[in-house]
Amino acid sequence: MAVLTARPDKAADLRQLLDGMLAPSRGEPGNLRYDLWVDQADPARFVLDELYVDEAAVAAHRASPHFQAYLTRVGDLAERSAFVLNPEAVA
To answer: N or C: which end of the chain has fewer CB within 10 A?
Structure first.
């Protein structure tokens, strides 16, 4: 899971970057969920909710060209907090 808050005047650019991650990430082997949320109280804050079958699928995602391209841009567009969580009660 990642929480991204757009830098001033960068919300539209961040949204475009995040939208571009949806299809390729959802199409990865081992991806179970890759959802984008927008904070109702702050439309410049986004949450990525990701779920993969195992650590190998996560590693493959992180090594993918689209994720590497995302990493080169996201720091200029947003403050980012990433959380790696273990599923405890996931439906």
So the answer is: C
27/16 Cα distance (integer angstroms) = 18
Give pLDDT tens digits for 51-90: 999 999 999 999 999 999 999 999 999 999 999 888 788 7
Q: Are 47 and 1 in contact, with CB atoms under 8 Å apart?
A: yes
Q: What domains can you pick out in the chain, each with its CATH number?
A: 2-82 (3.30.70.100)
Which of these, 35, 43, 6, lies nearest to 19 by C-alpha position? Answer: 35
Element (H, E) at 55: helix 55-63
* Residues 65, 91, 2, 74, CA torsion sign: positive
What per-residue string of b and e applies to 39-50 under the rule 16 or more CB within 10 Å gives b?
eeeeebbbebeb
